[in-house]
């Protein structure tokens, strides 16, 4: 049975991916940090799953998380790096704490998790979660965007360094669910601003991830699932995405 480890699996996109992989017959490692109740609820819906708490802002947490998943379910075949911190900052508000959290969770943790599975020497595939903003970065969400942009480069670099044993790809989603303090009207405005003027279904995200996992000739690739939002002038509506 394929073992899939999903980081940030308790909520939002990660939860849907964990549930979808479980329903497809996989064993699922449910990583969470503070959302234990949601993680337990998810585990109750899956045939074979393990709850795996870890604070990925800590440097050594990645190796421990892989070890915990192996002990509970067996060697990791598929790693989905979905855990993320999404805190607003810009050049005026940038401070050490926000910077450190964004770099640790959004960049260092995915890289260290991939290193940990690669060290086992077994075939595996990793999918990193980026953001559509890596296509054309803007100055808001400064440290978050810097971390995600660096992770895109890391995806390319690790794909080369770890081939042919480990494949490394990425998904760059658009605005899939309301973020932070967004109202329903603000979220609908974002949806209308996409090139396709449509909401991004969670199943679309899963199908993109599954394609990257199952297509053995693809590595180092970033797949955008953003309804074409990256081609639009999205800077003017980014304030709707700022957390209250």
Descriptors:
Rossmann fold; alpha/beta; 41% helix; 7-stranded parallel β-sheet; 7 helices; single chain; 244 residues
Outline the structure in words.
This protein is α/β, with parallel strands linked by helices. It has one domain: NAD(P)-binding Rossmann-like Domain (Rossmann fold). Helices cover 41% and strands 15% of the residues. The protein has helices at 12-23, 36-43, 61-73, 96-119, 142-162, 184-193, 202-214, and strands spanning 3-6, 27-32, 49-53, 78-81, 124-129, 166-173, 222-225. A seven-stranded parallel beta sheet has the order 3-2-1-4-5-6-7, sandwiched between helices. Helix 2 links the parallel strand 2 (27-32) and strand 3 (49-53). Helix 1 packs across helix 7, helix 3 (61-73) packs across helix 4 and helix 4 runs parallel beside helix 5 (142-162). It is globular. The relative contact order is 0.13. The model has no long low-confidence stretch (mean pLDDT 93).
Brief account:
The chain has 244 residues and is of the alpha/beta class.
Whole-number tally of structural domains = 1
Question: Which shape, going by the Cα principal axes?
Answer: globular
Structural class: alpha/beta
CATH topology: Rossmann fold
Query: Which radius of gyration do the C-alpha atoms yield?
Result: 17 Å
What kind of oligomer do you see?
single chain
Per DSSP, what share of the residues sits in E-state strands of 2 or more residues?
15-25%
| Overall strand count | 7
- The helix/strand order is EHEHEHEHEHEHHE
- Spatial gap, N to C terminus: 43 Å
Widest β-sheet, arrangement of strands: 3-2-1-4-5-6-7
- Average pLDDT: 93
Flag low-confidence runs.
Answer: none
Identify the CATH class.
Alpha Beta
**Count of helical stretches:** 7
Largest sheet: 7 strands, parallel
Query: Would you identify the CATH H-level superfamily?
Result: NAD(P)-binding Rossmann-like Domain
* Second-tier CATH architecture: 3-Layer(aba) Sandwich
Helix content: 40-55%
């Amino acid at each position: 049975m394929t073992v899939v480890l999903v980081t940030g699996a308790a909520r939002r996109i990660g939860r849907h991916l964990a549930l979808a992989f479980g329903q497809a017959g996989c064993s699922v490692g449910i990583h969470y940090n503070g959302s234990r109740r949601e993680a337990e609820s998810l585990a109750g819906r899956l045939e074979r799953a393990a709850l795996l708490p870890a604070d990925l802002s800590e440097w050594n947490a990645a190796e421990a998380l892989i070890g915990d998943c192996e002990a509970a379910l067996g060697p990791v075949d598929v790693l989905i790096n979905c855990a993320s911190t999404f805190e607003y900052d810009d050049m005026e508000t940038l401070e050490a704490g926000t910077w450190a959290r964004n770099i640790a969770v959004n960049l260092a943790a995915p890289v260290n998790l991939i290193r940990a599975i690669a060290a086992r020497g077994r075939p595996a595939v990793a999918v990193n979660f980026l953001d559509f903003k890596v296509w054309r970065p803007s100055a808001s969400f400064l440290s978050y965007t810097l971390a995600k942009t660096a992770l895109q480069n890391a995806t390319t670099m690790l794909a080369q360094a770890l081939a042919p044993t480990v494949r490394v790809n990425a998904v760059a989603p658009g605005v899939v669910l309301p973020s932070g303090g967004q109202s329903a009207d603000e979220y609908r405005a974002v949806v209308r601003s996409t090139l396709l003027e449509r909401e991004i279904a969670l199943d679309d995200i899963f199908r993109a991830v599954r394609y990257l996992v199952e297509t053995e000739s693809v590595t180092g690739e970033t797949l955008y699932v953003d309804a074409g939002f990256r081609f639009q002038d999205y800077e003017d509506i980014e304030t709707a995405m700022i957390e209250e």
